[in-house]
C-alpha cells in the first residue's frame, strides 16, 4: 500500500522543475542536501545563496512523524493551535511506552492496560485531527516510517532525534521537539539554520564481519558527539552502492550521536529494490523519473572539496568492526584493539547480556545475519554464555523473521523475543540482576549508551556494536573475544571458530503480513477529553510573556559539571509515563546532572532553606515565591534525544536562562521555542567565575537583538561582583518568541 499517494504525485511532478530553477538562480552545481532543502523552501520564490551555519531559513516539510512519548506533548500543543486538521500527512507510533520484561505477548498486554489512558488520548486525538495512528506492537517509529512513508527527495520532521533514519531512502528527515512539529502540522513556516555540509566519501565494499553499523561507529570516533552539530552528513562515492537501504538507514540513524542535523544517501538501485519490496512500486517509478536530481550533481562528486565544508574518506574494504563505549557513543575502538582497551581500563570483562534490535538495527538483513550466527551454536555444539534479547523493528519484520525461521533460531539458544518496540534502547527494560551495585557489561546494537540509559543502573557498562558482533560476543560472554581471530571451546572440548555472518538483504519470498496495527483517521469532530485529576495527562496553560525587564538577582539553581544530555535533564525509563503531564514529569528535572560544587547528582544548595535539596524541589520553592533561577553548564548541553520536556520542565519551574559553553542543536531550538534564554559564554573560562551562592543577572534584554551580546553580572556572597559578555544565536523571530513567552504564544 502506498500512503499519501496524492501528495507524492504532486511532489515528483514539480521536483525537477524546482531543482532546475534553483540551479539557475544559484549558478552552480548542487549537492543532494542542497537540492532537497531548496526544493522545500516555504516560499519557493525566496531562492538565494544562504550562508551555511549562519542564515535561518523557512522550510515546508512534507510530513510529520511522532512517537507516543513525545506525541503527547506535541498534540497537547497542537490542540491549542486552533486548527481542525493537520496541514501535512502526520502519524503517531506507539513504540516507547512498552516495557521490555517477560516477552512480546505479555509486555504488550501489560503496556496496553497500564497506558490505556494515554493510548486512548493519542488514538482519539489522531482520529480527530486527521493523523494516522500505529498501535502498540506495530513497530518502532523509524522502521515503520522507512517501510511505509520515507521517499527519495522528501523532507520530514519527527519528534524523535533518530528521525534521520529515513535518510536511508534519500530523504532529509530531521529530529525536532513537539513545538517544531506543531509548526509543520499547522502549515506554518518551519525554521532551521541552513546546515553546513559534511561530505563522507565511501569507497570499496564491505566484507566479512564488517557491517554498515561500523561506518557510523568509526565516523562517531572521528567527529565526536558534537562534531556534526548544525551540519548535514551527506554520503557519496561508489561505496554507497554496496549498502542496502536498511544499512544506509542504520548509518543515518546514528548520525544523531554526532549531533548532525540529519544524514542522507544518494538515490540508487538498492533504494529501488527496497521500495518495491515494501509495496511501493509507484514511488520507485516516480523517483526513477527524476533520478538525476536525487543525487548530487556530477561536478560535486568529481570535486567535492569545492562544495562540502569538510570531506571525510572511509574505505569500506579496510573497515574493521567497531565497538563504541562505554558511557558515550563516540568512544570508538576497532575490534582488533578492543581487548587491550578492556584490560587497560579494567572494564568488567564478562559480557552478561546482548541486545539486538532498536530503530538502528532491526531490519530483516540485521536479524538474518545475527541469526546465521545463532544457528552456528547448535551446528558447532557451543554454549551461549550471555543472555540474549531481541527486539524486531516492526510487525512486518517480526512476522517475516518468524516465517523464515529466524525467530526460532534465536529462541533455540535461549533468546527472549521482546515486543516490536524500543524497549531497553530508551530505558524501558525491567532488568533483574543479582546485585545492582556490581559493575557489569552489556553489548547492544542500539545507538546510545549513556550511563543508566538501558537499565537505570550506573554500574552497567554499555557498548554499541553491530548485531553480528553483539551476537558473537553474547555467545562468547567475553568482551575480549575477537570473532575474526579467536576460537571458542565447544561441549566436546574442541576449539571451533565462528564462520563469518551471512544473510539476505530482503526476504526472498517477500515480506509476510503480520498484524500491522494501523488505524486510519476518521476525521470526526469528537472532543478530546482530559480528566482534571489525571496523573498521566495535563492540558497546557500558556507560559507568561516577558515583563519587559532585565532578569535580575536570579539564584544559581545548578552549575553542571561535565556531560549533560537530555537523559540527565529529563530521564526516560519510569518517567516516560508522565510525558503528557508537565507538572508531574518536572519532578525529574536535571536529577541526573552532576553539581560542580559537590560532585553529586540531584543535590543543590537552596538559598531559601540554606540547605541542600533536590533540583526540582529547590526550583519549585523558588517558583512558589516568584523567584526565577538560572542553570550554568558545559559543552554540548542537551546532547541526545529530541525530547522537548528537557526544555519545558525548566520553563515550567521558572528557570529562565541556560548559560552553557555550547548547545546541542535540537535542544537549543527547544529552549527558544519555550521562551527560554539559551546563552553561551563569549569566553568559556568565565564558567569558572560562577560560585555556588551567586545571584546572577542578565542585562541588556530591552535591546535584545540578533548578533548583539548580552551581559551577565555575578553578585558574589562576599558582596563583590563581576560581569562578562554572553553570546546568543537568536534571530528576530526567536526574540519575538522570548518576548511572547513561547513560540506558541507568538502565533
From TrEMBL:
<protein>
    <recommendedName>
        <fullName>Aconitate hydratase A</fullName>
        <ecNumber>4.2.1.3</ecNumber>
    </recommendedName>
</protein>
<dbReference type="Pfam" id="PF00330">
    <property type="entry name" value="Aconitase"/>
</dbReference>
<dbReference type="InterPro" id="IPR006248">
    <property type="entry name" value="Aconitase_mito-like"/>
</dbReference>
<dbReference type="InterPro" id="IPR000573">
    <property type="entry name" value="AconitaseA/IPMdHydase_ssu_swvl"/>
</dbReference>
<comment type="pathway">
    <text>Carbohydrate metabolism; tricarboxylic acid cycle; isocitrate from oxaloacetate: step 2/2.</text>
</comment>
<dbReference type="InterPro" id="IPR015928">
    <property type="entry name" value="Aconitase/3IPM_dehydase_swvl"/>
</dbReference>
<dbReference type="InterPro" id="IPR050926">
    <property type="entry name" value="Aconitase/IPM_isomerase"/>
</dbReference>
<dbReference type="InterPro" id="IPR001030">
    <property type="entry name" value="Acoase/IPM_deHydtase_lsu_aba"/>
</dbReference>
<keyword id="KW-0809">Transit peptide</keyword>
<feature type="domain" description="Aconitase/3-isopropylmalate dehydratase large subunit alpha/beta/alpha">
    <location>
        <begin position="34"/>
        <end position="477"/>
    </location>
</feature>
<comment type="similarity">
    <text>Belongs to the aconitase/IPM isomerase family.</text>
</comment>
<dbReference type="InterPro" id="IPR018136">
    <property type="entry name" value="Aconitase_4Fe-4S_BS"/>
</dbReference>
<dbReference type="GO" id="GO:0005829">
    <property type="term" value="C:cytosol"/>
</dbReference>
<dbReference type="Pfam" id="PF00694">
    <property type="entry name" value="Aconitase_C"/>
</dbReference>
<dbReference type="GO" id="GO:0051539">
    <property type="term" value="F:4 iron, 4 sulfur cluster binding"/>
</dbReference>
<keyword id="KW-0408">Iron</keyword>
<keyword id="KW-0411">Iron-sulfur</keyword>
<feature type="domain" description="Aconitase A/isopropylmalate dehydratase small subunit swivel">
    <location>
        <begin position="554"/>
        <end position="683"/>
    </location>
</feature>
<dbReference type="InterPro" id="IPR036008">
    <property type="entry name" value="Aconitase_4Fe-4S_dom"/>
</dbReference>
<dbReference type="InterPro" id="IPR015932">
    <property type="entry name" value="Aconitase_dom2"/>
</dbReference>
<dbReference type="GO" id="GO:0046872">
    <property type="term" value="F:metal ion binding"/>
</dbReference>
<dbReference type="GO" id="GO:0006099">
    <property type="term" value="P:tricarboxylic acid cycle"/>
</dbReference>
<dbReference type="InterPro" id="IPR015931">
    <property type="entry name" value="Acnase/IPM_dHydase_lsu_aba_1/3"/>
</dbReference>
<keyword id="KW-0456">Lyase</keyword>
<keyword id="KW-0816">Tricarboxylic acid cycle</keyword>
<dbReference type="GO" id="GO:0003994">
    <property type="term" value="F:aconitate hydratase activity"/>
</dbReference>
<keyword id="KW-0479">Metal-binding</keyword>
